[in-house]
Design brief:
heterodimer, A: mainly alpha, ABC transporter involved in vitamin B12 uptake, BtuC, two-stranded antiparallel ribbon, 13 helices, globular, B: alpha/beta, Rossmann fold, 2 domains, eight-stranded mixed beta sheet, six-stranded mixed beta sheet, about 20% strand, disordered N terminus
Chain lengths: ~325, ~350
């Protein structure tokens, strides 16, 4: 709610002070530039909902981008076939995370910290740190730069993924079991939920969508490099937490995550268009995002405290004021 | 309240994504069109990375030119190695409506698409320091040609040795294309002008300071009459100097090379290294902005063969390369004035 108001305030502020902020081309830029991080945030959300975390998605994005580039350029695969293999690899990588987390019962933070280095290391090994892939057919690059029915092509992919995940989290038993696991894994297990399978599903989904983000990023930048997606996992986590999902798991919403992504994307873009701070906008948006995150978390705690106090007062007052509902 | 949230979220999303062309206001001027008379030129300068001391010095020179010419200079670049960032910054500049974009390209091919998009919108594009594909820019401000580097290295070495005696080269690898080009020019100059000097050996150091030090120590042992070590990759310059210093031959065996002044200051000041060769990075920034302004005003046109860049004088243009001129030799007398 507060975040939605913040987003509206951003729009008003930046359209007044930013140069050409509301121009359609710029709004298209905002969407294009935040699609990959948005996708990662969308799949990070269910993972965090279960009380877990996936630090490996940014590195996996780099690995998948390099694999995709190599398959198209060196092995001569069509972009479609290469994309299918890349998504499969993403799924397997996510499955590897899931295996370690569910079978060996290792903490997700440690497992994905390990694969964070592992995936990036593999990407660098494949390219020996220097090779880049940039020979892609125009039909594939359209995914990153063309528009379809008035929207940037990748926005349609994003909307589709967001829709699927919204339904999964808010309208199916998957969402309910992820929440239950986040509240109490033991409780969920005693309640007869297939905890391992539900957890694995969230991590595999994160892997597949990270691969999808890799393909979209490659199409946008027209080049695949081993350092693609560096730091994206933290930006995704920031958006999820800013969007109201508890880092301890159990509560959160997909639309909140979408608002979180939008708030950060608009902030970064808008600040870079205010003449007086153009040169330091990137640093400033980092500072403001951090401040916003802390304010949001502290505000949440404060609100909870206030509402609890009000509830306590109400319960103590109930006997003297009979309700007529 | 709870019910409202998804609706608001959808509305916000629609607001961001919903950007059909019908929304454009007729009043706003098209971005990147020719600047109306009287309006300040807006030039965007893209470094490879923002915090790098080299590019901080580029900016210093660019700031000077901007102040002199009354230009709005926008300097922004990536702060980490995210390869998507340069493209994003350029794409943002396109909609910001700048007049010229001057870029030092981290990804030769990757950034070409974004730069071509800018050109399609009527924004002038030039590159400096590191080029993109030629069809994505009008000019490349070239800080040093292979011939300039090769000849300056050879001439400086000859001067240090009194134009006679043995010298050796430390390179990065024997296959590095740019360094082989420099070596070819060094040897051409040697043959042409210095018959009494002899190149006795060329050793690779894999771009590592330690290996350069070791190779130099070996060279000093193998060639007792060696008068000069020429290091043509930047980590090799301090590496060679350290070896000469440890062998107790400081001053007797001269050291020179292609590198950054800051990395070599200590050796230059203590007399181990006699000369460090590079270009004046501030001048590169000054020239880039000067040329960018001329390009926007139509004073610099494709096909020009020379360009007058204020205090830098009349500079040569080869094809589409604007040449900064001969490299600069940093010595004990002047190295203190530079910080990069």
């Amino acid at each position: 709610m507060i975040l939605a108001a913040f987003l509206v305030a951003e729009f008003i502020l930046f359209s007044a002070t930013g140069r050409n902020f509301l121009q359609p081309d710029n709004l298209t830029n905002i969407v294009r530039h935040s699609t990959e991080i948005g996708l990662l945030a969308l799949v990070m959300m269910p993972v965090i909902l279960t009380g877990g975390i996936d630090l490996s998605v940014g590195s996996l994005l780099g690995l998948c981008a390099v694999l995709f580039g190599k398959m198209v350029q060196d092995a001569g695969l069509s972009p479609g076939a290469a994309a299918a293999v890349t998504l499969l690899v993403g799924g397997i990588a996510g499955g590897f995370n899931a295996l370690l987390i569910t079978r060996l019962r290792l903490p997700p933070l440690i497992v994905t910290l390990g694969t964070f280095s592992l995936f990036r290391g593999l990407a660098e090994a494949i390219t020996k740190g220097t090779a880049t892939y940039s020979k892609f057919p125009d039909s594939f690059l359209a995914l990153g730069s063309a528009t379809f029915l008035g929207l940037p092509t990748q926005a349609w992919v994003f909307v589709a993924v967001a829709g699927v995940i919204w339904i999964l989290v808010h309208r199916t038993t998957f969402g309910r079991s992820w929440r239950a696991i986040g509240f109490s894994p033991e409780g969920a297990r005693y309640a007869g939920l297939p905890v391992e399978r539900r957890l694995a599903f969230a991590y595999v989904m994160a892997g597949v969508v990270a691969a999808l983000a890799a393909i979209i990023l490659t199409a946008r930048v027209t080049q695949a490099r081993a350092d693609a997606g560096t730091g994206y996992e933290l930006l995704a986590i920031t958006a999820v937490v800013l969007g109201g999902t508890s880092i301890f798991g159990g509560t959160g919403s997909v639309h909140g995550t979408l608002l979180g992504v939008a708030a950060i994307a608009v902030l970064t873009n808008g600040l870079s268009r205010i003449p007086s701070i153009m040169g330091v906008s990137r640093e400033l948006s980092g500072v403001l995002t951090g401040a916003l995150l802390i304010a949001a978390l502290a505000g949440g705690v404060l609100m909870k405290f206030l509402s609890e106090r009000r509830a306590r007062r109400q319960t103590s007052a109930t006997p003297s004021t009979p309700s007529n509902a | 309240m709870k019910r409202l949230l998804p609706i608001l979220a959808c509305a916000a999303l629609a607001l961001i994504t919903g950007c059909g062309p019908s929304e454009s206001k007729p009043g706003t001027s098209a971005p990147g069109g020719p600047a109306p008379a009287g309006k300040k030129l807006s030039i965007a300068l893209l470094p490879k990375s923002k915090g790098n001391q080299y590019f901080v010095n580029v900016k210093k020179g660019a700031d000077k030119a901007a102040a002199e010419l009354g230009i709005e200079l926008i300097f922004d670049g990536p702060t980490n190695t995210d390869p998507a960032k340069q493209n994003e910054i350029v794409e943002n500049w396109i909609t910001l409506g700048v007049d010229v974009i001057a870029a030092a390209c981290e990804n030769r091919d990757g950034i070409a698409t974004a730069l071509k998009k800018a050109q399609a919108k009527g924004i002038k594009v030039l590159t400096y320091d590191s080029d993109t594909t030629p069809d994505a820019r009008s000019f490349f401000v070239n800080q040093a040609t292979a011939q300039g580097i090769g000849y300056t290295l050879m001439d400086t070495a000859a001067k240090l040795c009194g134009e006679e005696g043995e010298f050796a080269i430390i390179t990065a690898t024997l296959t590095a294309a740019n360094m082989n080009e420099w070596r070819k020019n060094i040897e051409a100059r040697l043959k042409e002008k210095y018959p009494k000097m002899k190149l006795v050996d060329t050793k690779p150091c894999d771009d590592q300071k330690d290996k350069a030090q070791q190779e130099t120590a070996n060279l000093l042992g193998a060639y007792p009459n060696l008068k000069c070590v020429m290091a043509i990759c930047s980590p090799a310059v301090p590496g060679a100097a350290e070896a000469v210093k440890q062998a107790g031959k400081a001053g007797k065996v001269k050291v020179l090379g292609l590198g950054l002044p800051n990395e070599n200051k200590a050796y230059v000041k203590s007399g181990v290294t006699q000369a460090v060769i590079l270009w004046k990075v501030e001048d590169l920034g000054y020239l880039t902005l000067h040329a960018a302004a001329a390009l926007a005003k139509g004073e610099l046109k494709p096909g020009a063969t020379s360009y007058k860049a204020g205090p830098l004088g009349e500079l040569k243009i080869e094809g589409t390369d604007i040449l900064l001129g001969q490299p600069f030799v940093f010595t004990k007398d002047n190295i203190e004035q530079f910080d990069f």
